[in-house]
Amino acid sequence: MADHEEDLRTALRMSMQNSPPEPKRSKPRDGPAGAPTGLPEESSEVKTRRLQRELMATAAEKRMLDAKKASPSPSSVSGSAGSSGSGLAAKVVRKDKELSLEEVNLGKGLSEEDAKQLFSMVFGAEVTKGILAQWSNQGIRFSPDPETSMGLVQHEGGPCGVLAAIQAFVLKYLLFCPAELGKVVPNMHHDMGSRTLSNSPCVASNNFASLTEDAKARALIRSMGEILFLCGSNKRAVIATLSVIGDDTERSKDSLDDEVSELKLVDNALFSDRNNVITKSLEGLSIESAADLHKVLRVNTYTTRESAFKRLQAVIPVFQSRMGALLFLISALLSRGLDLVQADRDDPSLPLVTAPFGHASQEIVNLLLCGQAVPNVFDGKMDLGGGMSLKGVSRTVEVGFLTLLESLNFCKVGQYLKCPKWPIWVVGSESHYTVLFSLDTTVQDENELEGRESQIRKAFDAQDQSGGGGFISVEGFHQVLKETNVELPTEKVDLLCSTGFIVWSEFWQVILDLDKSLGGLKDSTGLMGKKVFDLYHFNGIAKSDLNGSQISSGGETPVQRPRLTKLRVSVPPRWTPEEYMTDVAVSSGSGGNESGGKATEIAKPEPSQHAPLVDCIRTRWPRAVCNWIGYPPSIV
């Protein structure tokens, strides 16, 4: 058994070298059909792969002979319970035989036509080298900083949309679905509910540093797999990798998982060398044309989640490399299908990576969040007449989306993206994507009063024939009163109906002044239904952070790292009259009784702290008041 282990260790170490030694096999393999006879010239890539396959096959043959000598007969090997060593050797031999085949997990190349279509869809015909460099130098890696260790680090400006979408799903698994990772995140209860983390010590202490590397890696693989299957309509996932990296790195992990777990042949240090191998393989590689994609891209298609997750686990170092973000975008597009992606879009002629700064378009973000590359954020379709329509989001989503552009009245985010299953949102600004999230799923729940308001407004809108003008007929008004069980005094009804139509604002003011026993929402304090909760904002680009400042001889030196900001959010009821806002105290979130001066300061209707992120939050929670400590959260 020791010899078997040593052979396998030696073969693996040799296969990881960039220039493998001459193999023991003296007879070369037959060349491909149509190849010239004699000694054909091989590219360094082909030669390296051929030598590596022969090296592994030689080691396999030696182990096969040793296994045959160690066992008296084939039947004794397969039938004896005590022959686990020989059985394992046979298992390794079978693995190595599979790996000696030509198609050893390298995947298939794209046709020239598909490569041209893919490159044109993503970058267009006039892409600059600067944009291509941004997308060719961004890996999918976690922050090394303990306080932001759950976050993906961003180095280049363009691929932030891809990273933010993956980040949102990673947070879903780390915070709300740790059991699905195969190993519960430390300090989290095994029996927690599917939609709450209120009993989790990890959440209560805000100790993201307690997340293990194993948990983060599993969350990343699960997230990438879920997104790809979402793009593939839950039928398939296409995983793209690069031929220049070769199959040695992928094979060393994929083919030896079982053996390593049983024999402990390879230590973590050996597997960590894969990153160095990949980095060296990518030296000098640039993708500047469809021809470059056609030359180096290799894809595999998987129809089961188990096989896709296994493949992602094997090639995760490739996605951590500088080509990772681009490869994942390509994987998502191919999982959806290039023709379907074009059909999703309103204007297929425009590139998915926008000029002049190379940002991910809304279509890319929607593809990763919703599985469809639609360009808009409203719900459903918008009929423009004449057989024309604009495409929006057509289904509920796991994680959502908010944008600064809505606060500027450039768009309207629909309920699908605004109210996702989990309290996690990708946040878009004019030039960047970040992530907002809560540790408590109840932040999205409507309280009793909000539910009542929604019920009345829905009934009113159903009778509104003005195209959203906010007024209804007298007949429609009586129907609203009946459906919502509102009992108005006769004089109030006559007053509202005196003009022949009823305006929502006037009707709502009457409801606010009507006692609850009569179906109203009378509230003399303006505090009924108020919410106070915490949100967290993560920006993966390294920024100055005084919260993690270091003391030097010249004073505090801000640390450059991804920024995680905790916000205390106070939300008055949607129907609170403006005159009550000056009296709405935020002290319920301030941690108890404080001095009069400080309490007065907290109760100011316009807090001293404001940032563009607050405008985004207010598109989800109108008139929210936000406070934080340290630098303001940045969405750029």
Task: Write a structural description.
It is a single chain. The chain is of the alpha+beta class. It has 26 helices and 15 strands. The chain has a six-stranded mixed beta sheet, sandwiched between helices. The protein has a three-stranded antiparallel beta sheet with strand order 1-3-2. It has a two-stranded antiparallel ribbon with strand order 4-5. A hairpin with a 2-residue loop joins strand 6 and strand 7 (388-391). The radius of gyration is 30 Å and the shape is elongated.
Q: What is the tally of beta strands?
A: 15
- Which percent range fits the helix content? 40-55%
| Model regions low in confidence, pLDDT < 50 over at least 5 residues | 15-40, 71-104, 183-205, 248-271, 579-606
Q: How much of the residues is beta strand, in percent?
A: 5-15%
* Ends apart, CA distance between termini: 57 Å
Give the strand line-up of the largest sheet.
8-9-10-13-14-15
Structural class: alpha+beta
Major pleated sheet: 6 strands, mixed
Helical stretch tally: 26
Overall spatial form: elongated
- Rounded to the nearest angstrom, the radius of gyration is 30 Å
Mean pLDDT: 76
